[in-house]
Design brief:
The protein has 681 residues and is α/β, with parallel strands linked by helices. It is built from 23 helices and 21 strands.
């Protein structure tokens, strides 16, 4: 500001001085404000439970409030030999420009890719905000003074403000570490303080000769009270913001790294442990799917069961070993203890898990499990080893035993045994077919059956299809087995026909890898010609998820099957992706509604509506419907009364039966039906 000669002749230059404690406090305000802003800004990039705009606002508020507080504490530190007061309205309004500019700057700097243009633009905006805040702050001083700024001061203020934020923008990728964040907070807080005190040093203050000038600089009235109040508000707000941020980060960390159900560290923590440490011992404990041993329980009951299992393992593990829950039914134990101690610990866990569970359900149950472990004389990295153990443990039989991985390496794997023994199993009739009826609920009779593969192993006993069929499907041998099944069912069809058992359709499951193979078509044609069977008596069941990767070839193959006269059903309908889009392209004759939609009825209305919708869709497309997985009286009663047009398949009506029992069951049902008709007449 320049003065005319008349005014200048009546002006007296006055000088002030600074209170060192207040000045230091103002610098601390700027540093703490910058640090808090950095912490808030970190939450923008993390998986916070709160929206990003909230963290943008809190970061800008922390920085803006820190700069504003630094400015006014600095003004409290500045003592003049005249009376000085503050306009409360202008004081409050002076925080607005810095808050707005800080928010815009932080928002622009959120871009994942660093850009020099963005960095410059955001820094310019913050610099303008600092100048506007400082100017309003100086105007808020009520005094009988005139002041003069050099233009160079404004330029200096802007440059410092610019570089203070540009420093943050440049260093942002490195601010994840706490000490780096603290270092840059000190640098940025110091630069922001330099803006204020540099501007004050570049300002000359004049008063008219008539103004009373004291012999010594005097503090602002009620300075101590105002400073205490400002400090209290500053500390309360910023401490709250820091606690709020750290609490959110803690909750996020707990949610991402700890299992919600058991409170054990999860797969992420396990992976970190493998990266950061080496271990001598590892054990993977897989509990078999509880659906099989807890059929009549709810999901909440199974969760309680898992918690009980985790609790039993936790109480028996060694003091310094680490327990993780890496999957719903999988636990992992890491240890650096002596081999013998580790094995003894596992034996203790095994004994504990073999004790009956009665807390969850009324009947005593002991879930099957397998514990695969390895002990090493030397510490080692377990990354690759874990993957091997995981694959092995998931394929092992659930024997309630501990399995030493080192011994397992000397034996043939279960998968190798399966593949090697299949041909012999076919020759010696260890592999055989059972047939599950599909009932017509209106007549309570069945004329359709599904052929299912079973294995009675001479040593292992009955091997679950869920164990050996997935292994077969990943091996070319599945083609030979499927061909064998096709010939067996054609032969069985004629055998039933000769005995007066009128089975109209026999369904066979076709592996996804075999659907588009020309060999399948040839086998089907050869089989029906050999046994002189109309192809319409054979239904090919294709799992919906099996043809997703090769839909074009699947469409062509299904069309060829239909042209040859074979029936085609989509199994597990509704569980794959794009069910409806594939349905309009595939020339199928039947939809099989997956068991997962049946489990919840009649208690789950949504599942019932889904089934109703599929049946309605099938009816409009003139497709047959089979509802599979009906296993209790409530499900059967609901389906019988609501879905009369569908065929029903499930353990409630009949389990899979050997061919001879199918004959007996068929004749028994038809005899009862004939008797009922006779009585009615």
């Amino acid at each position: 500001m320049a003065f005319n000669n008349d005014v200048a002749n009546h002006l007296i230059l006055i000088e002030g001085q600074y209170s060192i404690p207040f000045a230091i406090t103002s610098v601390v305000f700027a540093i703490v404000g910058a640090y808090t802003a950095f912490v808030m800004h970190d939450r923008v990039n993390d998986n916070s439970f709160f929206p990003k705009p909230l963290w943008f606002f809190l970061a800008s508020f922390a920085l803006g409030f820190g700069i504003w507080s630094m400015h006014y504490m600095g003004m409290f530190a500045f003592e003049l030999p005249i009376d000085v007061r503050f306009n409360l309205l202008l004081t409050a309004l002076s925080i607005v420009p810095i808050l707005i500019s800080a928010y815009v700057a932080f928002y622009l700097s959120y871009k994942k890719k660093h850009s020099l243009k963005i960095g410059i633009l955001s820094s310019v905006i913050l610099g303008i905000g600092v100048i506007a805040m400082h100017s309003l702050g100086m105007l808020s001083m009520v005094r009988e003074t005139h002041h003069q700024y050099h233009f160079s001061v404004f330029v200096l203020v802007f440059i410092i403000a610019f570089f203070s934020y540009f420093l943050f923008y440049t260093a942002k990728p490195y601010l994840q570490k706490g000490y780096v964040k603290l270092l840059f907070s000190v640098l940025m807080g110091g630069m922001l303080s330099l803006i204020h005190y540099g501007a004050m040093l570049g300002m000359h203050i004049f008063v008219e000769s008539s103004v009373h000038i004291y012999s010594q600089p005097i503090p602002v009235p009620h300075r101590n009270i105002s400073a205490i109040l400002l400090t209290s508000v500053f500390l309360i707000i910023l401490i709250f913001l820091l606690v709020y941020s750290f609490a959110d980060k803690f909750v996020q960390h707990q949610a991402e790294h700890y299992d919600v159900l058991t409170k054990l560290p999860n797969i992420r923590m396990f992976e970190q442990a493998l990266e950061q440490h080496s271990y001598k011992n590892i054990a993977i404990l897989n509990v078999k799917d509880l659906h099989t041993c807890m059929e009549e329980t709810t999901f909440l009951m199974r969760e309680s069961f898992i918690k009980e299992i985790a609790s039993r393992i936790e109480c028996k593990k060694l003091q310094f070993s680490e327990l993780y829950r890496t999957d719903f039914y999988q636990f992992i134990l890491l240890s650096n203890d002596q081999d013998k101690d580790f094995v003894k610990c596992l034996e203790s866990i095994q004994h504990e898990l073999n004790q009956p569970y009665t807390d969850v359900i009324s009947k005593k149950i002991i879930p099957p499990f397998v514990c695969l472990y390895l002990c090493s004389k030397e510490k080692m990295k377990l990354d690759d080893l874990f993957e091997q153990l995981k694959k092995r443990s998931s394929k092992l039989l659930y024997t309630q035993e501990l399995v030493n991985y080192e011994k397992l390496l000397q034996e043939k794997s279960f998968e190798e045994e399966i593949i090697e023994q299949i041909p012999n199993a076919i020759a010696k009739e260890q592999l055989f077919l059972v047939y599950q009826p599909k009932f017509d609920v209106r007549s309570f009779t069945f004329n359709n059956v599904e052929a299912l593969l079973r294995w009675n192993h001479p040593i292992k006993g009955f091997i679950s299809p869920g164990q050996f069929i997935p292994i077969l499907e990943n091996h070319p041998l599945i083609f030979d087995v499927t061909d064998w099944i096709i010939h067996i069912i054609c032969k069985q069809f004629n055998a039933w026909k000769d005995k007066g058992v009128k089975i109209d359709v026999i369904s066979i499951n076709i592996p996804g890898t075999y659907v588009t193979n020309e060999r399948l078509k040839k086998t089907l044609v050869d089989a029906v010609n050999k046994y002189e069977i109309d192809p319409s008596h054979i239904e090919l069941e294709i799992t919906e998820t099996s043809y997703v990767d090769n839909i074009k070839e699947a469409i062509s193959a299904v069309l060829q099957f239909r042209q040859l006269g074979f029936l085609v059903a989509i199994d597990d309908f509704g569980t794959g992706v794009s069910s409806l889009s594939y349905l309009k392209m595939l020339a199928v004759t039947t939809l099989k509604i997956d068991k997962s939609f049946v489990d919840g009825i009649p208690h789950t209305q949504k599942d019932a509506e889904i089934i109703k919708g599929i049946i309605s869709l099938a009816s409009s497309l003139r497709l047959n419907v089979v509802i599979e997985g009906v296993e209790n009286v409530d499900q059967a009663a609901y389906i019988n009364s609501n879905f009369e047009d569908a065929l029903i398949q499930g353990y409630y009506y009949s389990k899979p039966l050997p061919a001879i029992e199918v004959e007996r069951f068929y004749k028994q049902i038809h005899r009862k039906r004939e008797n009922l008709i006779t009585v009615d007449i």
